[in-house]
Amino acid sequence: MAEITNELTAKFAAEFKENEKQQAVQNAVVKNGITNSAENIVAQSNNVPVFSIDLKTGNVSNQKQSGRCWMFAALNTFRHKILDNFDLKDFELSQNYTNFWDKYEKSNYFYENILATADQEVTSRKVAFLLETPQQDGGQWDMMVSLFDKYGVVPKAAMPESSNSSNSRDLNNYLNKKLRKDAAILRQLVADGASENDIQASREDMLQEVYNILAISLGTPPTTFDFEYRDENKEYHIDRDLTPKSFYDKYVGVDLNNYVPIINAPTEDKPYNQSYTVEMLGNVVGGKQVKYLNLDMDTFKKLAIAQLEQGESVWFGCDVGQSSNRQNGIMSLDTYDMNELFDIDFTTTKAQRLDYGESLMTHAMVLTGVDIVDDQSTKWKVENSWGDKVGDKGFFVASDAWMDEYTYQIAVRKDLLTAEQLKAYEKEPTVLAPWDPMGALA
Fold first, then answer.
1. Which of 38, 248, 262, 266 could lock onto 152 through a cystine, CB 3.0 to 4.6 A?
2. Chain centroid to CA 142
3. How far apart are the first and last CA of the chain?
4. Residue 409 has what DSSP assignment?
5. Helix (H, G, I), strand (E, B), or coil: what is residue 371?
6. Catalytic one of 76, 264, 283, 384
7. Count of CB atoms within 10 A of residue 104's CB?
8. Catalytic: 384?
């Protein structure tokens, strides 16, 4: 191993001091910070929020201090349909309702995986992976499908936000404390040769406690409710004694089995035109399997454009923190000029970033528009869920090149796929390791 000597460090320090450019940059960065000093104002003029295809949406939602972006994005795609179909000015579905059932189901999914790996040492990579984060706010498209299929949805008025849904840190902290303790109990029962009945009885007691924690923290999910609203013509409507499932069927009416998650993962271990799943990734036991079709980026974007052209927004997952200006709502490769600031080339390929842990899906939003010039997409309109104080009243612009590099997943209708693509998706998927970057939760 090569030791850093004092002489070597002194050499580096002398060279830095002799570089007048670096001295000037140092003054700017120390005073203003890295990103402020590297901000490229040209990025704003290159990404004006005007689009040739621009779908009608309501006001943006706000996930606040929680990691429920995947949930907000999916509910927003349905909200767009409700706004159009029922002539509403603004409307939101309850994110808190879906959040309750997600955490309830994720707890049970965790118990099942703990029991399935009970024969492995607690230090094994799979068990350690499970215990690192027993549950969290994030998710993926197919996980949302499982929740909607089982529990339906409700208007936000039927189960409003709570303090703990809007700021989820404490709930996640204490729920994970409980789940880790329960994991120790379940593993010990297996080690002691307990009967299946005894193990299941213990697990049911644990689930009752999970339900109690969630009900105390988030409120009790409604089983029936009335839906009241006024349309844009000020006409009053009321629909009585709805259930979450009947509300979904009547007001959303989307067959979620008609949607396919498409990924773009240009790594050697994931050839294109093949389907993939991730071991131990999911939330609802017995729910829809998380499954993707991996396609090249040009095809990936063409599918998103096709859905937008037909008037339907697109759920998508990306690495939102990369080359992104939150306040201005600009996601572009030239947002910051870090190479010039540090005089270092930070460039890597998308495959390298995935393989070496530099990038993965961290956030889900909704594509609501695209600008097409000379048959080529140039920039995309993005509905975020961070409130209206950022971007253009909550909407962001993603350059086409940024989409190429940092977008990883979309959900599109099956009828947009070719017969060959659909056949590839429906094949038995290759199973990826639990820690594969495609298993990241947005």
1. 248
2. 11
3. 39
4. E
5. strand
6. 384
7. 23
8. yes
Q: How far apart are CA 25 and CA 51, in angstroms?
A: 37
* Global pTM value: 0.96
Q: Which of 62, 69, 96, 164 is catalytic?
A: 69
Verify whether residue 27 is a known catalytic residue: no
Burial of 185 (0-12, 13-18, 19+ CB in 10 A): middle
Output the pLDDT for position 113: 98
CA-closest candidate to residue 290, choices 176, 438, 83, 169 = 438
Structural element, H or E, at residue 182: helix 169-191
DSSP state of 393: T
DSSP classification of residue 39: B
Beta bridge partners of 382: 367, 396
Determine if residue 152 is left, alpha or beta; phi over 0 gives left, psi from -120 to 50 gives alpha, anything else beta: left
Q: Which residue has the tokens 């999910």?
A: 221
Q: Please give the Cα distance from 424 to 173 (Å, whole number).
A: 40
Rounded alpha-carbon distances, angstroms, from residue 85 to 80, 291, 415:
9, 30, 22
Of these residues, 108, 264, 325, 363, which one is catalytic?
Answer: 363
- Nearest CA to 39 out of 392, 350, 332, 359 is that of 332
- Return d(Cα 187, Cα 433) in angstroms, integer: 22
3-state percent breakdown (helix, strand, coil) of the chain, nearest 5: 45, 20, 35
Main-chain dihedrals φ then ψ at residue 297, nearest 5 degrees: -70, -35
318 annotated active-site: no
* Distance from C-alpha of 76 to C-alpha of 144, rounded to nearest angstrom: 12
> Would you call 389 exposed, middle or buried from its count of C-beta atoms within 10 A (0-12, 13-18, 19+)?
exposed
- For tokens 């599109």, the residue is 412
Provide the token pair at 306.
Answer: 């096709």
Q: Assess contact for 83 and 74: CB atoms under 8 A.
A: no
Would you call 207 helix, strand, or coil by DSSP? helix
Q: Which residues pair with 411 in a beta bridge?
A: 261
Evaluate the CA torsion angle 78, 80, 86, 88 in order and state its sign.
positive
pLDDT given at position 89: 86
Mean pLDDT per 10-residue run, the chain (442 residues)? Answer: 96 95 94 95 93 94 97 94 90 97 98 98 98 98 97 98 98 98 98 98 98 98 96 95 97 94 98 98 98 98 98 98 96 96 96 98 98 97 97 97 98 98 98 98 95
- The rounded Cα 295 to chain-centroid distance in angstroms is 19
